[in-house]
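FW: tagging you since you asked about this chain on Friday. Here's the raw sequence from the shared folder, copied in full. Didn't touch anything.
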Amino acid sequence: FGVPGNGEFNTPPLVEAADTPPFFHDNSVATIEGAVAFYNGDVFNNSPAGRVLAGATGGGINLDATQTEAVAAFLRVINALENIRASVELLERAASSGRRRDFEDLRLAGEEIDDAIMVLAGAGLHPDAIAHLRAARELTGRAATRRSKSVARDAVGALNEARGALLGSP
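HL: got it, structure written out here
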């Protein structure tokens, strides 16, 4: 597939950033909260990239502690929502086919659900969504051991409940 980018510097997408710790090239930051705080600090704001940003926007990044936590929480929630989206896709595919690969789809869906739980629980966010995710994880495991399409569909229902809890939908 070749090498992505122009070879200078490739940054990972932010959508699943919260489930890829530790952060930075030297793994020096353990949490997404710490990574957000780094970009809010003097080290970044006084760096060449920080000065470019300040020149383009009229100032560096200057968040208060509440805003820093809110940005990190946002990154955790969009990460969990992406994990839910991927899990639903895998579960629906497994529930609608009779392929030999269905077990692999169910295994991958379980890993995505585990990531969503880890990301939210890591900051104590949305315990109601975590409860739905845990139910979906249990159902996904049951669907894999029983090779049950109806249980896979039940797991999708639990994931939709988790998504609703994250988005504030009934």
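FW: The chain has a mean pLDDT of 91.
HL: agreed, and Helices lie at 32-39, 42-45, 48-57, 65-95, 102-121, 127-146, 149-167.
FW: great, closing this out.
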